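Deliverable D5.2: sample structural annotation.
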Amino acid sequence: MLIKIENYLTPFKIPSKVFAGRYPPNLPRHSPILKEWYEEVADYCINGITIKGRYYNPLLYHWLNVFSLIAEQVDDKGNIVGLNLSRPLYCSMDHYFLDYCWDAKKNGMHIAVLTGRGFGKTYLALNIIQREYTFFSESSSIISSHAGLQADTDWGYIKQSLNVLSKTHPEFKLKTIHNNDEIIMSGYKVATSNGEVIRGNQSEIRKVIYGKNPDATRSMRPNVQLVEEFGAFPGKGKGSLENVLFQSEGSTVIGGNYTKTFQILLGTGGSIDNDMARVIHSKPEIHNMIVVPDFGKKTGLFIPTHYKYAGTWEKTGFPDIEKGLVEEKARREKLKREKMWKKLHQRQQEFPINYDEVFLRKGTNSFNQDKITTALTKIYNKDVPEAKRGMMREVRDNDNNVVGFDFVEGQGNVYIIEEPQRDKSGAMIDNLYIAGLDSIDQGLDDSVSSESDSSHLVMLVKKRLNNYFNDVMSSTYVAWYDGRSHRIIHDYEQIVMMLLWYNCKVNIEYSKIAIKIWMESKGYAHLLRERPRVSGSPKYIGTTTALDVIKHQDILIGRYIDDYYDKIYIEPLLLQLRDYDQSDRRKFDFVVAMGLTELADEDMYDKKVERVNKSATENMTLFGYYRDRHGKKRYGKIPNKKHFVLRPEERGIITYYDKDGNPHYDGEKEG
C-alpha cells in the first residue's frame, strides 16, 4: 500500500488477530500450546502479519501487543504513588508513523520526524528499540540526545517497559548481565573449563549524551539509534547534529554499500534551534532520510497537531481532523482574546497545525525579545497606525506626460503607513527618507519555485530622524513592498515609483545585480545608494555580504529596536526579528532589508534633512511612445517635451510584450 496520510484517515475495521498477542493464554508455563502461542507472537513481531491482503508491519504488531505504556500515578499532593500500566490504543496515525519507520528500516534508510507535543513519538521509537533488544541476538541500540534530560527520561521509560515485560510476557523477558544508568545488556554467565563465558541473547541498549561526550558513537555500530530532539543540538562544532550524523555515517556503512543502522531523529515544535535540523527535514534525501510527499512538500515525516488531537480518535482509532482543527483554533482564539501573546506564540510552536509553524523559533537571537513582543502586542491590539495596501501608479497630464505618482488603495504589494511628507509649499524634502531592498533576480514565471515557497522582493522605507520637521513619525519605517510578480519587471517598476514618490535612494545588496542593471538601463541609476563606507568604497553600488558587514547591520538593528521598538508597525518585520538567525538569512528578507536601511541611514549622518525645489520626476528618464519632430511614431527614451507623447487610446491594441516587459501595439513589427 502506498504510504499516504489520507489512506489512514478513512476508518476501516482492524482485525482482532492484530491484537491477539496482547495476553498469553492461561496455561502452564511449559505447555506446548503456550510455547506455540509465543512462537507465533514472536514471528509476527519479527516479520509482521498479513490479514485479508493487508500487511501489518512488525513494529506495529509489537507496539500493540508487547510494548507497555507506563504513566506515573500522582496523589492530590503531587506525590508519585505508583505506576499505571496500559497497552497502547490503536491509532491510525501511529500506524502511519510505524509504516514509514518500517519502510525506512527495511530499505536501509533513516527517518526524521517532527510533530507537536504529546503525540507519543518517543514511546513509538522506544517500542522499536525494545523489539530490537528482545528478538535479535547480539543487536545494539542507542538512545541519545544532546542534553541529559531527554536521554535520561527515555532511559527510565525503556527500563520500566522491559521490567513490565516479565509480568505481561514472561517468555520474552531476558536475563541481564548489565542493567545500570548507561547500558542494559542481556545474557548470563556460565562457568566453563576455559573460564567464565557469556551466553544468551547478548543484545544491548546504550545511553549516549553527546553534550558530555561528543565522540561517543564514533566506534559504535548500532542497529537502531534514537536521536531525541534533534532540533536542540548545536548548529556547529563537536557534539553538533552535523557531527553526530557524520559519526553515524562513518560507523554504519559496512562493505561500502550496506547501511546497518536505522536512525530515528525525533523533533518537537518549539525546539528547532539549529538550521541543520531544518535542512535535514526539508531535504531529507541529503542524509539518506526517507522522503514523505504529504502536505504538498517532500520532507521528512511531519504530522500536524490536529491529526492526533486528544479526544478525537480514542474511541474509533481514527482521528477527526476537522474537529481537532476547530478545537486547536479555539484554544488559540482564547489566548488572543485574553491577550496572552507569549503563550499564543508558544502554542503555535509546540502544537503546529502546518509545516511552517513547527520551525518557529523562540527568539534566541540578540534582539530584545521583550520589546519585540511588546511591539507585536500593540499591533494585535490595533494600537498602532494601520497600513494601507495597494499599488503605485503614474500621474499624467493632459498631454500624457508623467508628472508624478500616487498610491491607489486595493490589491497590490505596496503598504503605506504614512504618505511622503512635503513642506508647506508642497515641495519635496531631501534626505528625509532612505530605503533598503532585499531584491530578487527572477519572477515566478522564470523560477522553478512555487509562489508559496519562493523568496519575495522586500523593500522598507524609513523616515529618518527629522531635523527639518519635528513630528511623531520621525525615525519610523513608514512603507514597505513585499511581493513577487510573475514578471519581475512589474516589481521593479513599483519599487522605482515608491522611491520617486518618497524622494529617496535605496541601498541594495551587491549580490543582487539584476535590479541594478535594470534601473541603470532605464535611467534610474541616481536612485541607487552608493556603497556605505563600512562596506567598502563609496564609488561602487551595493552593500557587500561579508560577515563583518552583516554583523554590523545586526548591531544597528538591535540599537533601533532598543530605541524605537514602539515605532515598528510592520508585523512581518517583527515576526522575522523575533525568529531571526544570522547563520541563515535566506528566509529573513525583512530583516535583510532593515539591515540595509539602517546601514545606509548610519552612512548618511552628514546628510541633513532639507527642503528642495524640484518635482518628483525631474531626475527620471521617461520611456514611452512618442512622435518625433517628423511625426513618426516611436518607442523608447523620450528625448524632450517637444515631442508629442501618444495617448493610450492612440496606441492601438497590445499584441505582445518584449523581453523587457514593454508593450507593443498592432501595426508594429516584433523585434
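Annotation notes: The first strand starts at residue 49 and ends at 51. The two ends are 55 Å apart (CA to CA).
The annotation will be released with the project's public dataset once the embargo ends.
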